[in-house]
Amino acid sequence: MLPAENEYAPYYSRYIKMVTGDIFDELKEQPASFAAFVNSIPKEKGDYAYAPGKWTVKEVLGHLLDTERIMAYRALRIARMDDTPLPGFDENAFVVHAHFGDRDIPSLLEELELIRRSNLFLFETFTEEELRRTGTASGHTVSVNALLYIIVGHIKHHRLILEERYLQTPHQS
Q: What does pLDDT average to over the chain?
């Protein structure tokens, strides 16, 4: 069920709107389709950033790993009725300190698949009541259901960025 606008911060609407099918179907299917897309990227682009100060392809993949872990952790805490406000995170600091550039793309994709498989075991245990539960993360109300949509939409968002900014061939004059 699509989350209502009062179940998440306005910032996340761009991710949630990207989910067009059944959330559990998309959670299950996404790792394979995303891996196929990433595996189509030439290996030499792994350390490529489209502009100074922007993340490399490997760092984007690492950011997806970190974000999925954080969103799943939030979902777990909220589903278990822990009303502790959950902090935000600085994704740029996470990437700087994670050494994703030292890894290869296959290992990053394998980790993403394993994280998602593990998270699916948890997500599939959530009842309708647990999916509707809300908590506070980054100073905003968020539901467990919205977090699942954010997880899927976040990867879709970054796939588009990879397609548009990392894989375009500059025009020659």
A: 96
